[in-house]
Amino acid sequence: MSGSTKTLATRHPSNRLHPSLSPSRESLWAEASSHYDVGVRLFHTEVLDITPFNCDACFAFSSLLAAHAWPFSHQTSDLFLSSLPSAEQAFNTTWASLLRGVHTLLDTAWDWIANGPLGPLLETHTIYPAIVRKANPEISAKLTGLGQLWDPPPSRYNPADIEALSEALVLIQEACGILTSSTSERPLSAISLALAWPTCVSATFLELVDRLEPEALIILAHYSLILNQVDGVWFMHGMSRQLLQTVHERIGKVWESWIAWPLQDLALNELNNHMDDGIVHDTLLFP
């Protein structure tokens, strides 16, 4: 957690004036940047020693950092993969790493926060098998079919890598199972599902993503099926498109056919929203 806060202070978009800002807003942006820098320094000190007395403030601050990172970057910040040269990547903080930082804090202070004033904000990530089994058979079959990418296992992967790929795929299947159920049956909201997946996948899976392993990138591309459900949320709007563009640029033509479905669903979702004259409604994938 502390490592993320250190790098965030140098890479957060509020530390530079955006060229499109009008002069009247530049002073507000600069003032916000100053407050942000002070806040991060104080947060970095507090988060090193989480207690019942500072856990609520640290949880609120870290959650706000994660929520605002994407919109404050004008939808250009890195979600999972760094766009910086290799030598500079150690000084960059991705959106996924910010979310995982919040999750790390909750691992330490869940009981304190749950019994405090911010308790109503917490939502446990519980999967109900009966609901997952109701998933659209076509969607379930498509996702299950991705498993053939590592069956038989490629020689470059060890058992831990295969387990990480399988677990990441199962988490997407579970989320899609919930999203295809009726709204009244859903144990978790679409926003909670979208925020949960990056925190629940293993560090090994994210390492495979960093290595640009095609199987991991293909699974990551299918995470956009979940992101499409929350594209109308202000702090997540545009994430699905950015994620798929990044994966498409890096995966190579040999593997492009494996992400055709997520690309198609993104196009249908954007067309659906456009035809509604700017009012966002559910994608065609999850009616």
TrEMBL record:
Region of interest (Disordered), residue spans: 1-22
InterPro entries in the record: Sterol_Uptake_Regulator (IPR053157)
GO MF annotations, alphabetized: DNA-binding transcription activator activity, RNA polymerase II-specific
Identification of the protein by name: Sterol uptake control protein
Taxonomic source organism: Lachnellula subtilissima
Organism ancestry: Eukaryota, Fungi, Dikarya, Ascomycota, Pezizomycotina
